[in-house]
Amino acid sequence: MKKSLIKLTKNKYVFYVVCLLAILNVLGYFSMRSWECIVMFAAVAYSANCYSKNATIALLAGLFVSNFVFGCNQVKESFVDAKEPGAKIKKMLGKMKDETEKEQVECKDDDEREECQQKIEKFTDIMTDLTAAGKMGTAQDAMTNIVSALKNMGK
Predict the structure, then answer these.
(1) Exposed (0-12), middle (13-18) or buried (19+): which is 147, by Cβ within 10 Å?
(2) Which residues make Cβ contacts (< 8 Å) with residue 89, sequence separation at least 6?
(3) Quick one: how far is CA 62 from the chain centroid?
C-alpha cells in the first residue's frame, strides 16, 4: 500500500492533475483578491517541496493548508434583494421621478406640447404601477406589475 501510494505521487499524470487543481485554486484566489491565501499556498508548497523533494506532495500540502486549515475557500454569499425587496422599486421610482421632472421642463420649452404631455402621462402611469407593485404582498405580484409597467413604457 505504501509503495503504491509513493508510486502514485511520482506519476506524471497525477502531477498534472494536481498542478491543474493548484492553478485553478490560485486563479480563484486572484479573482477573490485573497492575497493572504496566495501567500499561504506558496509558502506551504515551497516548504513542503524543500522537505519532501516531491512536487506532487508539495502542491497537495499547499492546497490542503490553504483551503482547509487556513480557510481560504470560503464563499461569501449575500442576497441583498431578499433583505430589502422594496429597495429596487424605490430606486426605480426615483429615476422615474427625475425623468418626469426633466420631461416637464422640456415641455415648457417645446412647441409639441401634446406629444410631451403624453410622455408625462406615461411616466406618471408607470410610477403609479411601480408604487402599487411596491405595496403588494407577494413578490410574484410585484414582479408581474413591474414587468407590465416596463412593457407599457415602450408603447
Answers:
(1) exposed
(2) 130, 133, 134, 142, 146
(3) 27
Model confidence pTM above 0.85: no
**How many C-beta atoms lie closer than 10 Å to residue 122's C-beta?**
16
Dist. CA 80–CA 143, nearest whole Å: 16
Encode pLDDT of 62-79 as tens digits: 999 988 877 776 655 566
CA 134 to CA 92: how far, in whole Å? 11
E strand or H helix that includes residue 80: helix 80-83
Q: Which three cell numbers stand for residue 30?
A: 486572484
Name the grid cell of 107.
415641455
Rounded Cα–Cα distance for residues 61 and 40 (Å): 11
